[in-house]
Amino acid sequence: QVRLVESGGGLVQAGGSLRLSCTASGSIFSVLVMGWYRQAPGKQRELVAVITSSRMTDYADSVKGRFTISGDNRLNTVYLQMNSLKPEDTAVYLCNSKTTDGTYWGQGTQVTVSS
After folding, report:
1. Residue 20: pLDDT over 80
2. Residue 114 forms beta bridges with which residues?
3. What integer pLDDT is reported at residue 59 of this predicted model?
4. Does residue 85 contact residue 67 with C-beta atoms inside 8 Å?
5. pLDDT band at residue 89 using 50, 70 and 90 as cut-offs
6. What are the tens digits of pLDDT across the range 46-77?
7. How much is the pLDDT for 60?
8. Opening angle at CA 112, ends 107 and 115, nearest 5
9. What is the per-residue pLDDT for 73?
10. Tens of pLDDT along 25-39?
11. C-alpha distances out from residue 42 to 33, 38, 91, 92, 95, Å
12. Phi and psi at residue 15, in whole multiples of 5°?
């Protein structure tokens, strides 16, 4: 079993920055892809950013140029640097790990951006 724990969320003014972290623990098999998703009230969960084991990254159009995903060598820890935050970035941010053993989710961390 793999446990993902997110941290770093909080309340920030528009234009500010936050750095989210996601740390994996437990029986960690080979990580294929790590990703950050977000879910705002009344909206569907959406992909924010992903990073593969070969360090390829991809981003939602809405965050390109503002957010950066990175991770350690084995992708046991991944980060999401969020700059120039906007009120529409307000959501619960969830970490996702796709491994050779299965797919796992964290509980999420709240990000609130005030205008």
Report:
1. yes
2. 13
3. 98
4. no
5. very high
6. 999 999 999 999 999 999 999 999 999 888 99
7. 98
8. 165
9. 86
10. 887 678 899 999 999
11. 27, 12, 10, 12, 19
12. 90, -10
Question: In Å, how far are 46, 85, 92, 105, 107 from 62, measured between CA atoms?
Answer: 11, 11, 16, 22, 23
Distance between CA atoms of residues 68 and 49, nearest Å: 8
For residue 54, count CB atoms less than 10 angstroms from its CB and return exposed for 0-12, middle for 13-18, buried for 19 or more. Answer: exposed
Per-residue tokens: 97: 């790990």
Alpha helices, H only, 1-115: none
Q: Are 6 and 109 spatial neighbours (Cβ–Cβ below 8 Å)?
A: yes
- The torsion defined by the Cα of 95, 21, 80 and 94, in degrees rounded to 10, comes to 20
The structure tokens listed for 61 are 């159009």
Quick one: tokens of 31? 């990580």
